[in-house]
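Sync notes, pocket subgroup
Present: LS, DG
LS reminded everyone that the earlier model was apo-only. Rerun requested with FE2/S2 (inorganic) cluster included. Inputs:
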Amino acid sequence: MTKVTMTVNGKSVSGDVEGRTLLSSFLREDLRLTGTHIGCDTSQCGACVVHVNGEAVKSCAMFALEADGADVTTIEGQANADGSLNTIQQAFQDHHGLQCGFCTPGMVMSAAALLKDNPKPSEAEIREYLEGNICRCTGYHNIVKAIMAASGQDVSAIAAE
Amino acid sequence: MPKDTGIGAATTRREDVRFLTGRGQYTDDIQTQGECAAVFARSTVANGKIKSIDTSAAAAMPGVLAIFTGEDFAEVGGNPAGWLINSRDGTPMHEPKRPVLAHGKVRHVGDAYAAVIAETVQQARDAVEAIEADIEELPAIVNMKDALAADHYVHDEIGTNQCFDWGWIEDNRAATDEAIKNAHHVTTLELVNNRLVPNAMEPRCSIGHYNPGTDEYILHTTSQNPHLTRLLISAFVMGIPENKLTVIAPDVGGGFGSKIYHYGEEALVLAAAKKLGRTVKWTADRTEAFLTDAHGRDHVTKIELALDEEGNFLAFRTETMANVGAYLSNFSTATPTFLHGTLMAGNYTVPLVYVNVKAVFTNTAPVDAYRGAGRPEATYSLERVIDKAAREIGMDPIELRRKNFVKPDQYPFASAAGLEYDSGNYDALMDQMEKVADKAGFEARRKESKAKGLLRGFGVNAYIEACGIAPSNLVGVLGSRVGLYDAATVRVNATGNLSVMVGAHSHGQGHETVFPQVVGEMLGIDPQSIDIVHGDTSKIPFGMGTYGSRSLAVCGSAVVRATEKIINKAKKIAAHMLEASDADIELKDGVFSVAGTDKSVSFGEVALKAYIPHNFPLEDIEPGLEETAFYDPANFTYPSGAYCCEVEVDPETGKVRVDRMTAVDDFGNVINPMVVTGQVHGGLGQGIGQALVENTTYDEDGQLLSASYMDYTMPRADDLPFYIVDHSKGNPCTHNPLGVKGCGEAGAIGSPPTVVNAVIDALQSGGKNVTHIDMPMTSHRVWSAMNNA
Ligand code: FES
Ligand code: FES
């Protein structure tokens, strides 16, 4: 067991982990931050996406030890300070960008990373960026639309209801 | 003017807030003090004789608490099929035992033959590696045709690999044969409905808990229908009395059919919890999900359509082999029969339908209902052969369909496949589709594609399906071993807010938002004061769960009936409070008033009175305000639709891109159009996935080649377009109180043939004489078809 210390959602945390402990397990099991989900065992689904030092990473593909000293943000750290939904979360609710909610934390975290680098992505850029996030429920339409709306684009012309 | 609350309002979902902030609680999120972990030893061969299992080395490993093998469950029951099918000769289907853990033989890759319980998952995994199982590999039975001819069997004791040989409608067989023999034109098509893995994003997970003080068990599990799971465990598998077993399905990350069924892992964690006096948890990894979740589709079909000189349909004759895998999963026998054969008249006035289905055991994972369940298979066969017929006889595919549609004045319509359609207007849907899809602009778009060197195709489809499963009497006659009603309790609390306990389970469908819209509308109160309780057998009267697009049509009807009872009783209380007669009480906007007067009491005052029954007519009515209703539907509901797809095919590579996808559906009345649209989107994504990219492949040894996201292609955001969805042309269902039909599966039913028809249209427009390509239409398949044509 090795001690790791990191900042998670603004709070300093530490724990003892094995070399093989994944960051996703550390978050879910040790810190009980179960909003980060595990949907696969081949780093393909994106349900586990978190931010490490501001970059989107698949937390199932990183050892907890590799995040020693890092600044980690998870879905639990996304809401505004008063607890209300942030712009991306609110857009997902407004545009029905989630159904079962299982892929949702990863989608929101990926969307946040995308908008940080590309504040007004096109539909094609969003679809391409989400290559590593699988959703089985929504057919992606409302996810793409929500991300466009969150970036301030007018989505009223996109067929919906 | 769109409404902003109640029935018809596009209310955003209240459940979203917890999911968007990471506060959902899925089964694997539950962590209990002192829990231990179960890991399964799974067969690496498709067919094998278990000669011995030596667990001694594993048992001595660190942290190991117990090891179970098939021997431990030899005395308990098997997991049954829910539907008894009789073969054409009247003999019942073969129903081999499906044990908790394989015993004697392993029958597919992934079949569990032992389970290790240890302090941690890692310790259990390490111990599984140390189990010494001597399993003699036998030749695998994979291909259905070979299976029917083989002289060795998946289940030796039944001496055949054919589960049943079913005919529908058997009395029409000779007449159908005759009609086909004498017809002016017969179109024949052989096709494969490709095997799919449902792939809910949340893998299955089960947690068993046992309280020795009360002899009670609790199972937390990823289920679409916790009551059915409890019933199966209690009545068939383990004999735990229902009053000693609580099944809880908390937030569930998608189901699509795969979480309807009871699986052996659920029984195992309960047995282990009792043995150890510890909470026992098992979570599937994605590989296990691929190997052991019930798969979908997997039909090999020959369909013939007989037409007269004018293009009138005379008969459909279908021969299908349906793979049921190694064991009969709970709905596996109903899916290829009554959910498939009964839909084989489609939207058409065809007089004769005959369907023969041979269900075949193979050394593959069990196959069962997956989004659509039988109806996608029916629609695919029908709508592909109709398209092919249109080309053969030189008629426009839309015109040929219109010519044979059931017309609006023909309802109720008795279809040649034995169903009674209550309502619909297929021409109106087709009109609307042509409009919203901008059919008129297609030729111009085709030219633009051509200028880019691409072939553009236009494909259409008309479907009908049967939802709102199902009238218990009818399904009882047809072989179902359960009733298919649903139940709800409406509890008005003393302070005027409501808890509504429903048998339907929500795992993405938005029940927590939609059901309160219904109750709120009926009572004239704010839906926000109403909460739905679902997924816990200890809190809910009963329920048959969520599948077959039944939640609103069946459980929603139970909610309506229970709310009506509430209104009746509340009116009596109000009448007493207002010193009037019950008959004179009116309820409007949450206020009870005496007709023609200004005397009134609010809903909240009545609720309080019911629980503080001072000056209360106790001789006439009981205190309290809580009512339960069970609702058994009078018929199936019949959603229908007209779909169209435009694809671009790159003739150089065979790559297909869906450019436009339009779904026009008749769902009857719509409670929340936003949620309904979302359901269609999801179905379209899965249907296009089936048409273009998804496939489940076993090699000849029965090894699953597509057992991860590296090998099984899931549709991604950049495989799919924005969709055009319209449900403005609904015709209310005539036999349920909400007039609703069900929208959960339509997209997955309607889209696959639409996409294939579009690709064929594209290729033919490019001068290629390609009449069929099996799904998934990968670049390779399309390119090969073009180059062999
Ligand atoms: S769980 Fe990390 S990518 Fe699937
Ligand atoms: S909302 Fe269910 S997987 Fe995306």
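DG: The radius of gyration of chain A is 16 Å.
LS: The domain at 87-150 of chain A is CATH 1.10.150.120 (DNA polymerase; domain 1).
Action: DG to write up.
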